[in-house]
Amino acid sequence: MAASGRAKQDQQLDGSKLKIAIVHARWNEEIIDALVDGCVKRLLSVGVKKENIVIETVPGSYELPVGAAALASDVSIDAVIAVGCLIKGSTMHFEYISEAVSNKIMDIQFKVGKPIIFGLLTCLTLEQAKARAGLIPGVMHNHGVDWADCAVEMASKYGADFRTATWK
Amino acid sequence: MAASGRAKQDQQLDGSKLKIAIVHARWNEEIIDALVDGCVKRLLSVGVKKENIVIETVPGSYELPVGAAALASDVSIDAVIAVGCLIKGSTMHFEYISEAVSNKIMDIQFKVGKPIIFGLLTCLTLEQAKARAGLIPGVMHNHGVDWADCAVEMASKYGADFRTATWK
Amino acid sequence: MAASGRAKQDQQLDGSKLKIAIVHARWNEEIIDALVDGCVKRLLSVGVKKENIVIETVPGSYELPVGAAALASDVSIDAVIAVGCLIKGSTMHFEYISEAVSNKIMDIQFKVGKPIIFGLLTCLTLEQAKARAGLIPGVMHNHGVDWADCAVEMASKYGADFRTATWK
Amino acid sequence: MAASGRAKQDQQLDGSKLKIAIVHARWNEEIIDALVDGCVKRLLSVGVKKENIVIETVPGSYELPVGAAALASDVSIDAVIAVGCLIKGSTMHFEYISEAVSNKIMDIQFKVGKPIIFGLLTCLTLEQAKARAGLIPGVMHNHGVDWADCAVEMASKYGADFRTATWK
Amino acid sequence: MAASGRAKQDQQLDGSKLKIAIVHARWNEEIIDALVDGCVKRLLSVGVKKENIVIETVPGSYELPVGAAALASDVSIDAVIAVGCLIKGSTMHFEYISEAVSNKIMDIQFKVGKPIIFGLLTCLTLEQAKARAGLIPGVMHNHGVDWADCAVEMASKYGADFRTATWK
Hints:
Strand content of chain A: 15-25%
Keywords (chains A, B, C, D, E): Riboflavin biosynthesis, Transferase
Mean pLDDT of chain A: 94
CATH architecture of chain A: 3-Layer(aba) Sandwich
Radius of gyration of chain A: 15 Å
Structural class of chain A: alpha/beta
GO cellular component, one term (chains A, B, C, D, E): mitochondrial intermembrane space
Largest interface: A-B, 38 and 38 residues
Organism (chains A, B, C, D, E): Brettanomyces naardenensis (Yeast)
CATH class of chain A: Alpha Beta
Distance between the termini of chain A: 41 Å
Order of helices and strands of chain A: EHEHEHEHH
Number of helices of chain A: 5
Shape of chain A: globular
CATH topology of chain A: Rossmann fold
Oligomer: homopentamer
Number of strands of chain A: 4
Number of domains of chain A: 1
Function (chains A, B, C, D, E): Catalyzes the formation of 6,7-dimethyl-8-ribityllumazine by condensation of 5-amino-6-(D-ribitylamino)uracil with 3,4-dihydroxy-2-butanone 4-phosphate. This is the penultimate step in the biosynthesis of riboflavin.
Pathway (chains A, B, C, D, E): Cofactor biosynthesis; riboflavin biosynthesis; riboflavin from 2-hydroxy-3-oxobutyl phosphate and 5-amino-6-(D-ribitylamino)uracil: step 1/2
CATH superfamily of chain A: Lumazine/riboflavin synthase
């Protein structure tokens, strides 16, 4: 269940003072539910208080950047985790959505001055998505766990400097 | 006719206080007409008043971002649905238009401070487009329905926070 | 000579009050000349006055965005048509130029507050380009005609709202 | 040695009043040297004075946009020619660098208000690069010549309007 | 161990007055450790003082732009080296992350007014990454060395002009 090459934590994560929002798309419900669940459990286990975890949804992944930015407009939020699951279909929908969302999640971090964690699976098959949601025992771990760690780390390490940078 | 994995609505949609603009390209008229028709019917069924649905056209999909932004400049509009249908041809026209439009529809949401719904089909065949417009009975549903739901949801859930965010 | 699926005009075009600039690259002269010619003739036929058609050139397609933006900086200009013809060669030059130009023509519309019409052919063969310039009788129509219609329509329908939008 | 389809000059080039900077990457030295040499000779032959040609280097092509922008920050510079040579290797380095540089050279023109000429070869083989640097007699011309012409033309035709455009 | 075509230094590098930050992702630890090690040793050997080398980490490569920007917000930092190692997997994760990071590292240089060195390996195999980290004797050199040289050169040559450019 270990990810080969998975990044090792280099600091003790402490989410006790952080408020984290999760915004997730609703397509591929089984996958999303598992990812969000893994994410929430990990946030709690690294000290984020239950009342400091905000969960909201958007219809599909293309809506994640607006949802994430709207949630980030609340000054009390320290980081947003954007969760979605795109699976290749027969048209080019997958490619154009994936590119637009990947680039805009990156971009809005610099608009809102807060980390937005990229929790978007871009899979070629449903099987790949299930594996990354921890739904196939013994294959891969639930990636929602990584995103929770990432949110707490990024907000702790870079949140203050990033939010107040004069070049914004 | 159900879409496997289609996102379930997580709130009661209420469009009764919303004003929604639809801007659509005119290429592939049969497809577009079906999509816009499905979109309008759904908007009405979730409570948007007939007089609060504005429909305007642009020549082709490349013009959708400017059309959408111009419509969004009317303060009374809560969201814009941008509808187009691109089908792969023998040159690379399809790829470059699809990419530019997908990215700019995403982007202008942050300029105008309102959700712009991505109603662009990027299909490899006309058959694929017909299926997604609900024109092949029993195969797929009319995607215009999803876009109507999406517009009402995004305007309801995120419209106010997004429009007034201080980081804009 | 009809384009299957070609967009039908949904309004009477009237260019009599408009001033339109054409900026074109000079590579593939035969193609470009035909496209610009088709464009100018159509502008005249929908009422644009001869003295209100400005034509300027740039060396290659990569220069179109700067040329278009410079022309658009003249307040009397209502829209710019950017015409170029890129043909796939043996290096990746075609792909990177096509992408950069397609995205920047899109983008500068929001900088200058005016429609810039995308008149860039991105063809895999010279034959494809000739067909789209109307140079192969009976195959396809001269796409310059579409771009003229597009310029007049976009300037007429959206020009005022787009130019004065407060969100710029 | 003629390029089929090569753009014909439509004006007499006069560089006597212009100051042009060349910034070049240093990878693939033989190619770069030939391109810069062709570029300089042409600048001189269209009237740019020797003392008005500034040459500076960056390590690799990814650094070209910053180098070009820094050079353009000198108000006396009228245009910058960015010269690099990327050749496909076994990783995806070529693709991501090519895309980022092609798009950012385009973009910074609008930041600095001056033409930045795209002198980046994106080749699949060293042979292709040699040909485009004029190093394989009788095959292709030295593309540095085109870039010199382009710089003088763009600065002459569009420099003033572009630099002072109110929409910047 | 020499890189064919590797750029030759065209100036004596002197890092004695510079403060350089390295931000690195933690995935693929063996590769990253070698790259950062090569980078640090080279910085020291071209005169950067040990106390003027700041090292910080982010979880994965997608986080590099925010980490780099946060570090660059410290006025005493002259340049940031962003180090990561992406390896193609079975989903499209590699492609979308690579594109978003390559473009945003490029972009933020213009936000923060400082060079951010692109130290991202985008490899199709682990073997390729090892070679570029200097871990396969006799095959390739440690690319961290190039990035160190690049940081010192870019900060020395362009840092002052770039930071104070009025067009920012």
